[in-house]
Amino acid sequence: MSKRPTVTFLTDELRDRVISEAREILFKTGIAILDDQLLDLLSDHGASVDKNTQKACIPPDLIDKTLKTVPSDFSLFDLQGRCTHHFNGRPDAQESYFTPASAALNILDDSTGAAREPKTADYIRYVKVVDGLKYIASQSTAFIPSDIDHRAADSYRLYLSLLYSEKPVVTGTFSEDGFHVMMEMQIAARSTEKNLKEKPLTVFSCCPTTPLKWAGRSCRDIVNCGKYGIPIELISMPLTGFTGPITLVGSLVEHTAENLCGIVLCQLSQPGAPLLYGGAPASFDMRYGTTALGAIETMMMDCAYNEIGKSMGIPTQAYIALSDSKTLDAQAGIETSMGAVMAVLSGINNISGPGMLEFVNCFSLEKLVVDNQICGMVQRMARGIEPKEDFPALPLFRELVTQQNLLSSAHTRRYMKEEHFLPGKTIDRTTRTRWKNDGQSSIKSRAQAEIEQLLKDYQPPSIDDYTRKTLTALMEKTVKQYGMDKLPPLL
Which pTM does this prediction carry? Predict the structure, then answer.
């Protein structure tokens, strides 16, 4: 058996102290909950609530009670009902899955290299590409098409994702109205509400408003998702020295407090509702006023809060394996690779990052296909090193001495593809002579060629006409409410 490589940042004592301090803050300082129904629910279960300030002080025993009902594991399924993810909160469980980060306002144009507003055609192209990427387990609603009314953009992204790929979707809402349309779409895809609860198709992001506040829309998302069995990921986002303490430990305390509150809200609303203990804390670079998601300190916080979540037996998520660079360059490779390696070695379950640039403001298809290779490499690393008919070693080395090489050995043929990750053409491993003869391609041009090949090989998902028409009718009805006569043309 192989020894899986791992990395940790917190001692047990430090981890437990962070949790203890967060619990004390929730009890003695309290947290703002901008939802009267949830404030009443908290009051009914022993929290001290001030309706004037909309603040709740949550006692430790209520936190303990709700932690007991959080599922330690749950699965995610694709459009056809096949299990694609099994999220497990045990500290020794190491299943990691990659998904593109979200949600950008711009995309990087393949032809010009400039950031621009995306259109429907760009989103469809993205979904088709991600559908063919072997090491990206799910789609996300990665960016926001600008040719749809912004009030319908949340449901429109999910609509396109369901039409063009079978992979499950990590997404989120912009309004409560949007949630109900998205919920109806998922029920249409699963045929019944019962089927959707049994085989969830999406994960919804639910974000507190740092510092120490849960706003109304996120509160409603937590309640609504629990009602329909839709898993959520809690995304606390303290920024060091700005909306959180400058120290990593201090920001981890804040992150823990906000996520613990999210757990209480979720489990009081619907005991047993599935969730991921996630987040997007960031090192705030005061020199430029930017949220440095590619900073090493950001990655360290992600890995550390994963340890905190896993210590409570909860599956985890993080925004990591992305870059703050503005283009596909060495910085993009450095930051994405470091994040991917650290995330997998830490055992983060759902890794949101591939394809993203510029502080989650710009998405790049070229980067996505390069990141797919990074994900494959990291997943190979996670399997570790183990013997495969290597002992006793004497017979193999006698063959080597006799033949002077092992190119045609049965052992080589048997284990070449299993033992070694063989990257696609995006990664260049040719000799310089062959590289020159092939046109001296850059990583950008190889990524563009990979995109075109994926689009050429794309096969549409198996979705029946009735479901397709139902989804389209829901979307058409939604946009008409906002003054649009028809949907943008689809490819």
Answer: 0.97
Say how many residues make up the chain.
491
Other beta carbons within 10 Å of 433: 8
- Show Cβ contacts of residue 369 under 8 Å, excluding neighbours closer than 6 positions: 129, 133, 426, 447, 450, 451, 454
Parse the chain into domains and list their residue ranges.
Answer: 1-386+423-491
Query: What is the predicted pLDDT for the residue at 2?
Result: 66
CATH of range 1-386+423-491; options 3.10.20.740, 3.40.50.300, 3.20.20.480, 3.90.1150.10 = 3.20.20.480
| Distance in angstroms (rounded) separating the CA atoms of residues 334 and 428 | 17
Output the DSSP codes for 364-427. -HHHHHHHHHHHHHHHHHHT----SS-SS-HHHHHHHHHHS--TT-HHHHHHHHHHS----TTS
Of the candidates 391, 384, 372, 394, the one whose C-alpha atom is nearest the C-alpha of residue 447 is 372
Residue 61: the pLDDT is 98
Model confidence band, residue 229 (pLDDT cutoffs 50, 70, 90): very high
Asked if pLDDT for residue 76 goes beyond 60, the answer is yes
Pairing of strands 350-352, 97-99: parallel
Give residue-wise pLDDT tens across range 130-141.
Answer: 999 999 999 999
Whether 286 contacts 243, CB under 8 Å: no
Strand, coil or helix: 261: helix
Strands 283-285 and 290-292: antiparallel
Q: What is the pLDDT of residue 158?
A: 98
> What is the reported pLDDT for 110?
87
Contact 284, 241 (CB under 8 A): yes
From CA 69, how far away is CA 332, in angstroms rounded? 40
Of the candidates 151, 137, 209, the one whose C-alpha atom is nearest the C-alpha of residue 354 is: 137
Whether 118 contacts 153, CB under 8 Å: no
User: Could you tell me if 34 and 219 are in contact, meaning their C-beta atoms sit under 8 angstroms apart?
Assistant: yes
Strands (E), 12-94: 31-33, 48-50, 55-57, 73-77, 83-88
